[in-house]
Amino acid sequence: MDREAVKSVLRGQEIELPSWAFGNSGTRFKVFGQPGVPRDPYEKFADAAQVHKYTGVAPRVSLHIPWDRVDDYAKLTDYADDLGVRIGAINSNLFQDDEYRLGSLTHPDRSVRRKAIAHHAECVDVMRQIGSAELKLWLPDGTNYSGQDDLRARQDRLAESLQEIYALLDPQHRLLIEYKFFEPYFYAMDIPDWGTSLLHCLALGEKAHVVLDTGHHAPGTNIEFIAMQLLRVGRLGAFDFNSRNYADDDLIVGSADPFQLFRIMNQIVAADALGPQSRVSFMLDQCHNIEPKIPGQIRSVMNVQEATAKALLIDRAALAAAQQAGDVLGAHGALMDAYNTDIRPLLAELRTEQGLDRTRWRPTPPLVTQRRSPPNGSAASRQGGEHEHGRQGKGRGRGADRAVEPARLGSAEHELRRRQRLGQGHRCRSGHRRGRGVAMGQGLGRSPGHTDPGGAGGTAAGPVARPGERVPGRGPGG
Ligand code: RM4
Ligand code: MN
Known about the structure:
Blueprint: H1 3-11, E1 15-18, H2 41-55, E2 60-64, H3 73-83, E3 86-91, H4 110-130, E4 134-138, E5 142-143, H5 151-166, E6 174-178, E7 188-189, H6 194-204, E8 208-213, H7 223-232, E9 236-241, H8 258-270, E10 281-284, H9 293-313, H10 316-324, H11 328-339, H12 344-353, H13 365-371, H14 412-421, H15 457-461
Parallel strand pairs: 1-2, 1-10, 2-3, 3-4, 4-6, 6-8, 8-9, 9-10
Antiparallel strand pairs: 5-7
The structure holds beta-L-rhamnopyranose (RM4) and manganese (II) ion.
């Protein structure tokens, strides 16, 4: 593909951002709060709009229920619209209620399963209000010990629960089912792999598709093979992009292994699955624990864009000819030539043509956007002030490696015991006992004089935790 053709394809690319990437996050050891993180879904949209403003290819934001619950979804939709972005997939949450200790959709007790199904009815209702077509379900269910539960019975319960959820969908809706090989349970996850996810999708019907989260595989897994296979059978619904080194690390996509991202995008391009007609949704599922979040998302979007551009550059005719002739090194070379091309000048050109502010991109765009005095309403102009009272914010807390939201860990007592085990004491800088968290992405407490951009404030996001308090019914990210 020549340069102009590459640019024209890239102009149509859309990368969806996760609302939870803009909230505070950390590990089970520590959540490092950042000043100015969003306090409600409106502020998350304001931040996401910054990412779109400087990349031009990130016009959609995934919501997570209940973290992004608001009273008035029409207002949120209008607000997003005003910012030039729109709402993407609705993610359900099955991992934060005490009743889900033994599972949600697979729980032995029918009443718990019913509750988990009812949660999806709420999500579908939100989809109707905002015009979203995608319900994304990550099943955190599993067992920790052999014999703990009947593995097959759990699959049967899951199939039945999924059928009830599928029956809730409108004709234009899709159910996107994600898999993960371990965590939060460590013996057997109930949807551990793409095969299990695909089997359930096939049993459900044509509206069910698999989500491939790049961080949800064992080390060494050939992820592009999975992408190819799912594309081949028309069941690749979405990517959750991120990077892993060890577990579900949720690092910036393309940071740990940019070549892997390129190989994945090669399969996408080869299957002509980049455009909207393929209905493959390219989403990010990441958190930024120590780096600034808006620039972190910008970097992520750029990494996907760069990998896509390189995949588009592959000389497909030369590749096919080499493959056909059994020219092993020639075929491999066709990929490597594209991968080793410095694509950044072409992307800079594209951004200029798109009217994006190019000065912001040099020399290191993420840092520049962070240092400059931000426009009103963007993250860095807000003051959180949480650190005086204790950590709050998003987190992902199940296993050794994923970020942790304090609220996810349970009660304040639990956290205190945990910290004592870690030998860290239990007091933060200010001498206050650490507060329980706000939900992942709910961010920090309101600061004096803050003007709520959507007029929804604390009621939109739910109550805001004061130091030492836990917001009921809300929790961190997964
Ligand atoms: C889970 C999973 C889901 C995401 C949550 C936040 O581990 O990857 O896709 O919605 O995290
Ligand atoms: Mn995911």
